[in-house]
Structure formats: C-alpha cells, structure tokens
Amino acid sequence: MSSSPISDNQLANKSQAWSALFSEPMSDLVKRYTASVFFDKRLWAADIAGSLAHAEMLQAQGILSAEDHAAIERGMAQIKSEIEAGSFEWKLDLEDVHLNIEARLTELVGVAGKRLHTGRSRNDQVATDVRLWLRGEIDELSLLLNALQTALVEVAEKNAEVILPGFTHLQVAQPVSFGHHLLAYVEMFARDSERLADVRRRVNRLPLGAAALAGTSYPLDRERVARTLGMVDDKGVACVCQNSLDAVSDRDFAIEFTAAASLVMVHVSRLSEELILWMSQAFSFIDLADRFCTGSSIMPQKKNPDVPELARGKTGRVVGHLMGLITLMKGQPLAYNKDNQEDKEPLFDTVDTLKDTLRIFAEMAGGITVKPEAMERAALKGYATATDLADYLVKKGLAFRDAHEIVAHAVKTAIQAGVDLSQLPLSELQKFDARIGEDVFEGLSLRGSLEARNILGGTAPAQVRAQVARHRARLAQA
Ligand code: ARG
C-alpha cells in the first residue's frame, strides 16, 4: 500500500486516479482520444439511477451504512439538479460520465462517495447505463411508431375507395385501393413495433454485479437491484445477466436494436420513394403540404419533397450504424474492451434519427393531398383490368393459360385503337371468344375489378375497412 493517504483532490484528477503505478500523466491527445464524456454524459440519468439502486442494495446487504447511503442519495439529488440546471461542470480529465459523477459525489459527500463503487466496475456500470437508457428510448420509439400507424390508418380509411394503379416492376398491374396501399406500410410498422418489443426484453437485463468481469466477492443481491430498476419480465421475475463475462462484454442488444431501427428506416425509405414518385409531375398522384417541402433558389416553379428525400438518405446513415456496431464486436476477445466505448455514438445517432423521422412522418401523413382522378387515369392507361378479363373467361370454362393468351390479343387490339379494354364494343370482344357476354363490362371497370378482390387481405374497399378496424383495435391496446 502507498504510504500517504490519497486526497479527494487527487481522486478528482484522473491522471493520478488510477494508481501509484503510473509515473507520468496522460498526454492531452490521448486524453481527448480516450475520453467519452462529451457524448456519454447523455447517460447521466441512467447512471444516477443505476448508482442509487446499487447503493440501496449495498445498504440492505449491510455493506454500506445507513448514513453513507443517505449521503449518497443526498449527493446524487444535488448532482441531478446541477445537471438539469446546466451548472454541472463536465471535465474531460475525468474521462466519462461515470467518473465525472462519482468525483462530484465525493466532492459533495466525502468518503461515502468513494464507497459507492464497492462491488462494482465501470464495465458493468456502463453496460447497465446503456441498457437503461436504451429501454427508455425504445418505449418512446414505440409510442412514435404507434402514432405513425394511427396517422396512416386514418388516411387509409379516408381513401378506401380511391383507386390507384397497383404496380409490379413499376408497370401498371392491377387497380388497388389507395387505402390498401397505405395499410401495407401499416403492416410493416406493426412488425417494427413487435420487433422493438422483442428487443426490449433482451435490453432489459441487469449486468451490475458482474463487476469488472468475474463477479464480485461481496454478497450483492443482484435480483434486488434488477427489481429496483424495473428489469423484470412479464411475470415480475428479475432479469439478471447470468454470466459475468458475457454481462460486461455483450452488445448484442445494441446491434439488435440498430437492426430493428434499420428496418424501420428501410420501411420509411420505401414510403419516401413512393411519395417522391407520386409527387413528381409525371405521376401527380399526391401533393405534400408545403411545410414539408422546400423551393429552389434558381427555379421559381419548384416544390421539392425534401423530407422524404432526406429520410431516404438518412436510412443509409442508420444502416451504416448497424454495420459499425456489428463490426465493432467481431474481433473482441472476452471480456470488456475499450472498443465498446464506440457503441454509444452510433446508438445515440440511431435513436435521434429515428425519433425525428417518425415524428415528421406521422405529421406529414395527415398533410397528404390525394388526387384520385390522376390515379384513376394512370390505372386506365395501363390496362389494369386485363387479369379480370382473363378471370372472366376462366369462369366461362376456359383454362387460365388460354384465357391469358386471348386477353393479350384483346389488349393489343385496344392499344392499337387507343382505348381501354372496357371501351371495346361487345362485338369486338366477342371476336376473341364467343362466350363473352354483356356481363363482362362489370369486371372490366376499375371499380368492378377492385370490388371483386373481396378476400381476406385483398384490396376491395370492404376489406380495407375491415383492416382499418382491426388496426384501430390493435393500436388502442398498445
Ligand atoms: N467509458 C467507458 C465505456 O464507455 C466506460 C467503461 C470503462 N472501463 C474501463 N475498464 N476502462 O465503455
């Protein structure tokens, strides 16, 4: 043991804090390179919550006196108000959020502050902090995902009867309800919500008690800490990481979260691409409210869909974070390595990007102006009911492949005449097959085609309304 006792001042100065082993202070460049406080201070609330739960348990286990525990609580309350008021002085010298808060605690309450770290390491501390913080963010994101779904369901209901050309290969395929089309995105975002809820279960597990890597010799009650922090399953059973080495080194939960976030962004990006196409003059299917668009500094006529374009772009950024995190882990031996400090910025940026994007999209959905005439015109241009004519012939006894061939000839004739299938006279249609009767026209109209697909999951407006009701009930429960 070193002969002279260490003063609080010395403890507050990191270059001397490690131990007497170090004979020279860290260089400024290395300090900046290794410090994380300027981004991880964002974890302060989780860090304090984790410390309070740890201290409470230390006292309950008889490891910490009631006085020390009270001092720690008092000190942490003061630190909380300092941080909230913006008066807390974050010091680069103290490397990260954990050491900054601990040093200030010791400044405020003396030796009790130094006792807080009993049975704990920054390795299990940081893993706990990130999990607690991410859990809160997942809860906010789930609400935002629900708000976006609710907004889309509303637009879908209003447009259940509106006919849009459905595309495959971006070629007109069959008429679909615009509401049905929007509900496809609601399905995607509903799966995203499920995925986030699933990720949350694995985020919500307690690493504390793993200490540096091997566990600790103090009789800690890890389950108690988990319960205090709300790290419990559906049945209220404490969720505690079961292997100390894994507890401090695992960042799978961060990767899983970023993967789920990437999928959310991919869905947003696909929707964005459609909004951009639909708003272009060539389509003119929709208009976006002015407040989501920008003009051009040179072309006075321009109104650009910047928000969906940016969202499409930011998808690359989030997927990039997923790649960053997954690569971060691939070469790490057990257990904790400093590499893991690099988990934070990608996670933070993923959450920020996702939150802003979901908020804007929920608002933007309500501001879509639909142009049903343009959609219908486009559907008519593309012979969207050709399949319906084939289906009609099948009902009259033809084999589908033969019907398909006959309709191809009919479409060719219609293209040459510059008319829609429904505009060919009956006598003309009968030249392709004598079995065609007056009743054919019902199915050849866009609306007839739409109404005919009255099957679970189909595009008939009745089905769309049924799905709207199902989504509403589901979202009300969430
Ligand atoms: N700032 C560090 C991180 O984010 C905290 C853990 C540091 N642990 C250590 N043994 N150096 O990962």
From TrEMBL:
Question: What range(s) does the Fumarate lyase N-terminal domain occupy?
Answer: 22-320
Locations listed in the record = Cytoplasm
Provide any one GO MF term from the record. argininosuccinate lyase activity
Reaction(s) this enzyme catalyzes, per UniProt: 2-(N(omega)-L-arginino)succinate = fumarate + L-arginine
Provide this UniProt record's keywords sorted from A to Z. Amino-acid biosynthesis, Arginine biosynthesis, Cytoplasm, Lyase
Pathway stated in the Swiss-Prot or TrEMBL entry: Amino-acid biosynthesis; L-arginine biosynthesis; L-arginine from L-ornithine and carbamoyl phosphate: step 3/3
What EC number(s) would the UniProt record show?
A: 4.3.2.1
Identify the residues that the record assigns to the Argininosuccinate lyase C-terminal domain, covering every copy.
Answer: 383-451
Give the family this protein belongs to, as stated in its UniProt record: Belongs to the lyase 1 family. Argininosuccinate lyase subfamily.
Q: Which NCBIfam families match?
A: argH (TIGR00838)
Protein name (Swiss-Prot/TrEMBL): Argininosuccinate lyase
Per the UniProt record, the source organism is: Roseateles violae
